[in-house]
Amino acid sequence: MKIVDVVFTKGFTGFYFDDQKAIKSGLAEVDGNFIFGKPVTKGFTNIRQAGESVSIQFILSSGQVAIGDCAAVQYSGVGGRDELFLADKYIPFLEKEIRPLLIGLNVDSFKRNAEHFDHLLIQNKRLHTAIRYGLSQAFLHATALKNQTTMAEVIRKEYDIRVPNYQPVDIFSQSGDDRYNNTDKMIMKRVPVISHGLFNNAETKVGQNGEKLVDYIIWLKHRIMQFHNGSYTPILHLDVYGSLDTIFNNDYDNMLKYLLKLEETAKPYQLRIEGPVDLGNQEDTLNMLAKLTKGLDESGSTLELVADEWCNTLEDIKLFADVRAGHMIQVKTPDLGSVSNTVEALLYCKEKGIGAYCGGTCNETNISTQVTTQIAVACEAKQILAKPGMGVDEGYMICYNEMVRTIKLANRIK
């Protein structure tokens, strides 16, 4: 089966592009859903901009259509990531440079096609991660259509994952700034992992001494108990966007002491803290995260640290996993480019005994969510992000429904 035509269309994502540097520096002024101020990250014309995607549709010789969506993370252009992905800039490039390479291509192997375009150089540069992301989704879908199977089954076959059946993966939902109302939605639907919290400013959200985060954890655990009385025991997963090194002046002992306080506050619930430190470069961030991970382990703590910033590519993930910089690593799917790298990253984390979190961003689409959900199921990830958007209900629905459909189909008797 071959590709006979390709169609590119501009679309929206489920959230926005936000200038993280401007927000963290305190330059941003929030008015409702608008964020005003002078952007500081290259490519941004506003601190908050509508998220954009490019949908790629392969018209196959069978008459079927395979789809993948190019999308980039909410906080593009920082932490070693590619620049802002804008559809009007990249569609002409796709038409001119990529479309001719796709026509006539055989779709019998997802891995071969995905890896080829992931390493392709145009004018001595690799393709933008968002383009590699969208192309690889379409390749995976095309191979599944050719084989008349789920995408999860294609992954297990091509990567020789020998597991007898397909099982559910814990879904993690994030609240955005509406960390109270949206958490209620998660509790109502008994989401396994909650609630992210978007604690992306040290002073205004975490607190000058971390007191606001403590207060939120107290509210969160009481809210769960109020409505479920012990029958529902979710994992609490909160993202602090590297703010602890700011609050505690990068003092290891004080950061460790604070993390242990958070763990005690969260009991009886398991607690995960994502992105505790961001020291402005990969080496220092990795070293401190590894030190904190070791310190928690040696203290007998059950709190889990989650690596995110400066851990973008497959090579980055291997580096963090090798030195145990975190108990769990977010495989932030758009940042890895081809979803073949997502597969490799999840499998590598599992091999190293590190929690394999098939993540991503609120700034994705329903298509990219469906593809990465099937990958998470195929690779038996520890958890997957409910996406896109920050409204909880929509992202959780897309992720959960795709997961249970895939499992039912892939486990069917043939």
Brief description of this entry?
The chain is an alpha/beta fold. It has helices at residues 20-24, 87-102, 110-119, 129-147, 151-158, 181-188, 202-206, 211-228, 244-247, 252-266, 282-298, 314-322, 339-351, 366-379, 393-410; strands at 3-18, 29-31, 34-36, 48-60, 65-70, 121-122, 125-126, 170-172, 193-196, 235-239, 271-274, 304-307, 328-331, 355-358, 383-385.
What do these coordinates show?
The protein has 2 domains: 3-158, Enolase-like, domain 1, CATH 3.30.390; 170-410, Enolase-like C-terminal domain (TIM Barrel), CATH 3.20.20. The model has no long low-confidence stretch (mean pLDDT 95). The chain is 43% helix and 18% strand. It has an 8-stranded parallel beta sheet. It is an alpha/beta fold and 414 residues long. The radius of gyration is 21 Å and the shape is globular.
Summarize this structure as a short list of keywords or feature phrases:
414 residues, alpha/beta, Enolase-like, domain 1, TIM Barrel, eight-stranded parallel sheet, three-stranded antiparallel sheet, 15 helices, 43% helix
Q: What's the average pLDDT?
A: 95
User: How many extended strands?
Assistant: 15
Q: What proportion of the residues is helical, as a percent range? A: 40-55%
Biggest sheet character: 8 strands, parallel
How far from one another are the termini? Answer: 23 Å
Compute the CA-based radius of gyration: 21 Å
Count of individual domains: 2
Q: Shape, please?
A: globular
CATH architecture of the largest domain: Alpha-Beta Barrel
The SSE string, one letter per element, is EHEEEEHHEEHHEHEHHEHHEHEHEHEHEH
Strand content: 15-25%
Question: Strands of the largest sheet, in order across it?
Answer: 8-15-14-13-12-11-10-9
Uncertain stretches: none
